[in-house]
Amino acid sequence: MADAKTDQQSERVHDDALAEHVAWLFRHAGDHDSARMLQALVLAHRRGVAEPGAADGSGEPQGGGA
Amino acid sequence: MSTPTHPLDRDELARRIAALPALPPLVMDLLASLQQEDLDVATLARRIAADQGLLVRTLRIANSPFYGLAGQVDSLDEAILVLGFRTVRSLVLGAGIVGGFRHKAGGGFRAGVFWRHSVAVAVCARALARARRANAEAAFTGGLLHDLGRYVMALCYPLEFERVVHLQAQRDCPHLEAERAVLGVDHAEVGVMLARAWGLPEGLIEGISCHHEPGENGAADLMHCAEVLAHALELGHEHRGMVPPMDHQAWQRGGFDAVTLAPLLGQIENEYEEVCNALLS
């Protein structure tokens, strides 16, 4: 039980770090729909999501371009 | 824009570019043939076959897992029969371009990183061109050539190139901005000067010229989106990665939305590794 909780926490920390890294990568990309779409898509790809929720460009990236 | 700190003399730059050795004549003729409708395939194939070094490298790429023909192709005729002349031409060009630029550049320029990035953009450009039903092999070649201006800068102006690298790290700004601030010229402009000196086809020059700032030009849009995608996937990236400023209009004009792109990302990553192994190892 405790192990499962630790695993979940560790997964969340990893996921937060991933989102933060992708946001950092896009820091100069721009503040417009195409930049947000690609950022969300790359994040989904990194998370291993085959068909991202961002597929219609409406995904919500964490953080934003410059 | 602020005054550049070490502006290059354009005439001197042009002289240094003119003094650079050109790519082999066969590679130049194959580049020119990218925009020719009436190809003399038999003559070009004979010339490729006569260049043993290029032929060996081409067959090595043709036999890489990417083409799914491992161990099956051992002659140029066979490669053309199985893959088609246009694909073989792009393999020869890949081997010829990478092999033709073996000059030692200074200023902390890292040729390995440079070529991995060029391959990444080439693979992205080919995938995007396929999605748009555009000329995928020309896009691949354009990707390999898109950043040659950076190579030229490091080759002809190593000290100034080093200052650019330092400034970029210091300001955490895109390459283009640092180049303009230090030299008053950017690698796209330098690349165009080289491409014109070599007489490259206009389609390739457009990709080199405007890959950071496309202006309603199909080839430039494609190269811009490929450049962005390569950085976004961190293919061939340097330590401090960064997606360059994205031109929203270019992405819209290209129709590169999430639905189009989602299935391409994994495929691009796989192709990138295989092409790097075949071309750069």
Keyword list:
heterodimer; A: 66 residues; mainly alpha; 58% helix; elongated; disordered C terminus; B: 281 residues; Hypothetical protein af1432; 17 helices; Histidine kinase (chain B); kinase activity (chain B); HDIG_dom (chain B); kinase (chain B); transferase (chain B)
Please outline what is shown here.
Chain A is an all-alpha fold and 66 residues long. Chain A has two helices and no strands.
Uncertain regions of chain A: pLDDT < 50 for 5+ in a row? 54-66
Count of discrete domains of chain A: 1
For this structure, the quaternary state is heterodimer
- Count the DSSP helices of chain B: 17
Distance between the termini of chain A: 42 Å
What best-fitting shape of chain B do the alpha-carbon axes yield?
Answer: globular
User: Could you tell me which chain pair has the largest interface and how many residues each side has?
Assistant: A-B, 27 and 26 residues
* Average pLDDT figure of chain B: 88
Largest sheet of chain A: none
Secondary structural class of chain B? mainly alpha
Going by CATH, the homologous superfamily of chain B would be Hypothetical protein af1432
Largest β-sheet summary of chain B: none
Summed up, the helix count of chain A is 2
Indicate the percent of residues in helices of chain B.
55-70%
Total number of strands of chain A: 0
SS elements, strand count of chain B: 0
Please give the structural blueprint.
The complex is a heterodimer of chains A (66) and B (281).
Chain A: H1 2-25, H2 33-46
Helix pairs in contact in A: 1-2
Chain B: H1 10-19, H2 25-33, H3 41-50, H4 52-62, H5 76-83, H6 85-100, H7 111-131, H8 136-145, H9 148-156, H10 158-171, H11 175-183, H12 187-198, H13 202-209, H14 218-232, H15 248-254, H16 258-261, H17 264-280
What does this structure look like?
Chain B: It comes from Pseudothauera lacus. The complex is a heterodimer of chains A (66) and B (281). Chain A has helices at 2-25, 33-46. Chain A has 66 residues and is mainly alpha-helical. The N and C termini of chain A lie far apart (42 Å). Mean pLDDT of chain A is 77; it is low at 54-66. With 281 residues, chain B is an all-alpha fold. Chain B is 68% helix and 0% strand. Chain B has helices at residues 10-19, 25-33, 41-50, 52-62, 76-83, 85-100, 111-131, 136-145, 148-156, 158-171, 175-183, 187-198, 202-209, 218-232, 248-254, 258-261, 264-280. In chain B, helix 5 packs across helix 6 (85-100), helix 6 (85-100) runs parallel beside helix 8 and helix 12 runs antiparallel to helix 13 (202-209). The longest helix of chain B has 21 residues, at 111-131. Chain B starts with 9 loop residues before the first helix and ends with a helix. The model of chain B has no long low-confidence stretch (mean pLDDT 88). Chain A binds chain B through residues 25-30, 32-35, 37-42, 44-45, 50-52, 54-57, 59, 65, and chain B through 172-174, 228-229, 231-234, 241-246, 248, 251-252, 256-259, 261-262, 265-266.
